[in-house]
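Lecture notes, unit on protein representations.

Consider one protein chain, 381 amino acids long.
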Amino acid sequence: MSTPSIEQITAALAQVNDPEIKRPITELNMVDSVSVADDGAVAITVLLTVAGCPLKDTINRDVTAAVTAVPGVTGVDLTLGVMTPEQRAGLKDILSNGKAEREIPFAQPGSLTKVYAIASGKGGVGKSSVTVNLALGLAKQGLKVGIVDADIYGHSVPAMLGVADSRPTQVDDLIMPVPTASGVSVISIGMLKPRRDQVVAWRGPMLDRALVQMLSDVFWGDLDVLMLDLPPGTGDVAISLGQHLPNAEVVVVTTPQEAAAEVAERAGTMASMMHQRVIGVVENMSFLTLPDGSTMEVFGSGGGDRVAETLSQRFGYDVKVLGRIPLDPALREGGDAGKPIVESDPTAPAALELAKIAEGLGGRGRGLAGMQLGLTPSAKF
C-alpha cells in the first residue's frame, strides 16, 4: 500500500468541522501543520482557539477518525496547540467574512447613554437580582432603561422579569429587544436559543461575537441607561466588555463574607485594567431581620467595606459602598415569580434599599473622567 499524500490528509481534515462554529477546521486555519512519514504515520498539529477548550476531546476524536480512514495511514499523532492573539484575530475576520463590525452606539463619543456593568467575583451573590431591581428602580424615575443579559452561561434575567419564554422580533437585520411591563427592554442569549433548556457551551470568540451582537444588532433606540449583567469572575466577557465599551462604569456586587469580598476585589481590579471606572460596591445579603426586630449577620460583616476600601487604595480614587441590601425572602420570591421586589413589594426593606441605590445612580451626571472623547491629533504646531 502506498504512502498517503499531504493532499489526501488535508482533504480528510476538511471533512472535520469545529464542533461549535460548525465549519471545517481547515477553513478556520486551525490546522497548523501536517507531516507524513514513509511508514504512513501522520503527525498533525491542530490549534484550539483557547487553552482548556471544553470540546477538545471531540476535535481529537473527529480528527483521529477522519485521518485514520485515509488508505495507507498507519497511525495518527495529534497535537493540540493554542492560537496566538493574531491567529484568533484572523479567525474573527474569517467568521465576519472580512466585514467591519456593526457600530456599537453606546461606545461612540457622542453617546449620552449611561452604561452600568454589574459585576461580581463569584456566583451566588445576587448580582442578577441587583441588576434587575436597579433597572426597574431607574425606570421608576422616568428613565428609559435597557438590560443586556451578558451572563451567557447563567442567563436568568428574562425569568426574573417574567419574559423567559418571549422571543425578540427581527426587522430586516435588526433585532428588537423584548419589552417588559415595567417599561424596561431586555435582550438575552436565552431569548435567542431555540429552546429554553438548551445549554450554551461556547468559547472565547463565540462569547465575544454574542456580546457584540447584543450591543450592535439590537435596536435599542434612545436609552438613558443601559445595564449589563456580567458573568461572575474575570473571564472572556469581562475582557470583551472592556474592549467594546471602555466607557462603561462598573458596580461590584459582593456579600459580607470574607471569601466573597476577596474575589469581588478581583472583579473590580479587572474592570480597572480594562480602563473602566468602578463607581461603587453593593453589599447584598447584609443581614437578616428576625421576628423580634433584631438582626442576624448570616454571612458575617464588613465585606462591602473591605472591597470599597481596597479598590479605593488600588485606584487612587474614592470607591463608595452604594448600599447594603438585607437578606429578604421576598427578594428571592419576586425573582422566581418574575415580579421584582421593587415593583411587587416596594415598601419592603430590600426594595427601599435598592430604590435608594437606583436613585443615586439615576442622579449621577456624566462627567468627562474616563470618557473616550474620540479626539485624534492632526498636526504639530
